[in-house]
Amino acid sequence: MKLIEASALIASEPPNGNDMAFNHAVLCQVGLPRSKVAGEKFMRQSGSAWVNVQAGYLDEGNGPVMQPIPYGAMPRLALAWVSTYAKRNHTREIPIGDSASEFLRLLGQPTTGGERGSFRTLRTQMHALAACRLQLGYKGRTYNGQPIEQFDAWQANKNTQQKALWPGVMLLSDGYFSELIANGVPLDNRALHALKGSALALDVYAWLAHRLYRIESRPVILHWKSLREQFAQEYQGKDADKDFKKKFVPALKAAQAVYPTAKVKQVMGGVMLLPSPPPIPFKGA
User: Three-state SS across 23-75?
Assistant: First the structure.
């Protein structure tokens, strides 16, 4: 119902300034992992674009602690939110609230569940995101670094939600910030909130937002194998493409529901992309 409501709203009401969100162009082509990763490295490549994520250490109050690779919807929403604030205000310093509840609200996430629910997921994934080393590559250019330069660990406190344990500001690295300013892709924040339950749907939406308006005339047909290599290299075996298709088609339909002007058709062996306006119209358009 929430997806249907968001679809109707987006189709009937053009986005205003508050509805605009941003994401890094490369992360619209190759996303973070969607499920938990075994080990300390993750690589995904699609055509000329690729992303490499390496787990890192974070001091949680008693020395270095190895963090996992960030995965799932939460770090995607968090990166989109901080990227949006950074690009809108042209600043590397991102205020992230004085409590877990406040930051969850900023992300459009539920604030119930206590330490064992949303708070714990947020803390785990934000620690992982703050500690990781991220490489983004595209057509001969490579960004090496960490998206987050400074972050005070969100220490666990099962008894209270003390503001003193919650950092008020996150500092983006200069390299990531510069890349974001140069290559930020406009997204509709209403769509992100509607798709927040599915990391794959978020990835498909961001990909369509970056890809469709760049198609000039002739439609582009992408086969299931190439789509699987872009979105889900974890699917292997003789039925890999078939298994991937079962997951991808519902995610594609969800993304199209909140991107009503996206012209995408399912064809024999894959999907057809046709020239489409971006979800956020260009200024002067």
Answer: EECHHHCCCCCCCCCCCCEEEEEECCEEEEEECCEEECCCCEEECCCCCCHHH
Q: Which of the four pLDDT bands, split at 50, 70 and 90, describes residue 147?
A: confident
SS3 207: helix
Angle at 72 between CA 43 and CA 155, to 5 degrees: 105
CA atoms within 13 A on the CB side of 169: 9
Whether the full predicted model's pTM is greater than 0.90, yes or no, is no
220-271 pLDDT, tens digit per residue, is: 999 998 888 888 767 777 788 888 899 999 999 999 999 999 999 999 999 9
Burial of 194 (0-12, 13-18, 19+ CB in 10 A): buried
Residues 42 and 46: their CA atoms lie apart, in Å, by: 14
* Residues facing residue 133 across a β-bridge: 54
Handedness of CA 101, 102, 105, 107 (dihedral sign): negative
Q: Are 68 and 162 in contact (CB under 8 A)?
A: no
Q: For 13-22, 65-74, 161-170, which range has the lowest pLDDT when averaged over its residues?
A: 161-170
**Cβ contacts of 157 within 8 Å, gap of 6 or more:** 165
Q: Are 58 and 64 in contact (CB under 8 A)?
A: yes
- Which are the contacts of 16, defined by CB distance < 8 A and separation ≥ 6? none
Which of 41-45, 63-67, 150-154, 255-259 holds the top average pLDDT? 255-259
Phi-psi region of 226 (alpha: psi -120 to 50; beta: other; left: phi over 0): alpha
> What is the pLDDT at residue 115?
47
Q: Residue 77 contacts by C-beta under 8 Å, 6 or more apart in sequence? A: 107, 108, 109, 192, 196, 202
Q: Tokens 């890192």, residue?
A: 56
